Amino acid sequence: MKYLYGGKMKIFKLFALFFAALLIAVPASAKYKFSVLTQVDTSNTFWQGIKRGMDDACNTLQVDCQLVFNQENGNLQMQLTNLEALVEQGIDGISLVIVEDNMFDEAVQNAIDAGIPVITTNVDDSEGAEGNARLAFVGQDLFQAGYELGKELSKSFPDGDTHVLLGLSAPGQSWAEARIGGVRKFMEEYKTANPNKKVTWDTIDSGLDTSVTGQRICAYVQGHPETTAYFDAGFWGAGAGNCLRDLGYKPNELLMGMFDLVDIVMDEMDEGYVHLTIDQQPYLQGYLPILQMYLMKEFGLSAWDVNTGKAFVYPSDVADVRKYIEMGVR
Amino acid sequence: MFSKNKIKSLLSRPEFSALAIFIFLIVVFTFVNERFLNSRNFMVILSTYPELALVALGITILMISGEFDLSVGSVFAVSPIVTMILIADYELHYIVSILLGLLAAAFIGFVNAIVTVKFKIPSFIATLGMLFMARSIAVVISGGFPPSVPKDLPTDWLVGRVDMLRVSIFWLIGIALICNYILKKTNFGSWIYATGENKEAAKDLGINTFWVKTTCFIICSVLAGFAGIIQSFRIKTVITSLGQGLELQAIASAVVGGASLMGGIGSAFGALIGTFLLLIIDNILILSRIDGNWFKFAVGALIVIAVILNTLTKNSADKIRLKDDD
To answer: What number of CA atoms fall less than 13 Å from residue B182's CA on the CB side?
Structure first.
């Protein structure tokens, strides 16, 4: 208690030191100030790749950039508030994720009206330019990527009946719904194209944690051993490798397809439990919006759409891809 | 067959209703789904059980002392990240690295205790702040990309397979028995209950409630950190989002297992039962092919039902006791 009351000056000095340190940490003024806004919090591994791309672009172009993570993962209102604050500040350019179609329409329009270029990255309004005033989108066509994932992995489906498990990592979130929606659309076409086969599928809430997702997949497949393949909306399905081995599944016995490049996905590809992943190249999703906004500001050029997510990665690619993962660029 | 006293004693145990629901669900689902009660399914459930139960165990002890900790999910990530950085980047011996990882967890617990007890800030707020800070520390110290778990790291002593089980289950049993002994058979255990039930009265009895609560905060954090290390060794990877949302699951496990949010009530056995019940519910919903969009609703509803039954059985036990007193 002495420290609380008798030491008021000490506490004051501590706070003063803290704020002084913050001020020192603020970089010197650059020609342009750009911000990138996401709906996830700092712990999202995938977003660290986007941050790496953003940082590299900003260092190269000598502009001041800030990646604004959410305090609370997935809190869209918090992301919207951050966006409105940045527009009020008169920032030079904004890149953001739009995972909900209507919520950001007005704020983005306000930014555009104020002369602030806005480029969506990673996830776009599901209606694209029709649904939002943003100038361009740099990222993966999520629905198409899901469709392509299903189509590519189906080439390895064994003869006979096919039962597929779809892991909807985050029910209600547009990125997950779109990717799994794409896989589902392919499965419907696959069913029509194979009238002599019994083709069925189930969708579960697979979760956003490797351990939880792994356990749910294993619980499902041991209860439904007829399962041929598993598709995950993210990378968390790789967490199933461990318990599949425990259950006595041999490599390649259950086909697994998912998204993104993280260590656990590469490890399970080496082990033979993940067979296909689609890299949406997060580095480009961080790098290109900054480059585009810089060119718009500096030379009056216009923004352009980039589909970053066409890269299939197979187990045979793992060795090559690993060196880029270690550099933090894939 | 059972005397009235035995029934009364059973009903008054905080974990009774969770145990009853647990047995009920097992019996019902054994008939509904033939693959529910088979060894392979329980092998799946038991693989993650020790990790979640250790966190619930720590939370339960802390809740008995009248506090709780929202930062356990973040500590669950910090400890393995510290451990793995020390192993991979500083090439320390893995045992030393694990101990330092646990020391980091203990330090977080200590800070939680100081902020809560010395500054008289509700633990809900203090540990909410730590939830964010610890998660941020996990990202900063690893640069967002924690080092990979070395392939040759000896992990069998912690997560190796013994027939259908993993070694981690034996660590859990050992730690749970120690916690149960401390809670039920030692003076310190009595002090924890007394502090949680009525802090002022406990002080009047000469109990150093600051020391009791601080120790409980540290135990809670260390168990969360240890659980995180077990999980990272098991899945052979460390990511910065490890344990995200775990705090709510751990608190739910503790409450379903009979621990009171008001303090003074709870048991180590209850934490184990509560965790197992939540895992069983998750497993049943997956096996039942519940639509993904309804999954969280079903989990939430079953948790609420479990807590309502908990309250009803406690009330029944109280009524029997009052009748006896009359």
So the answer is: 18
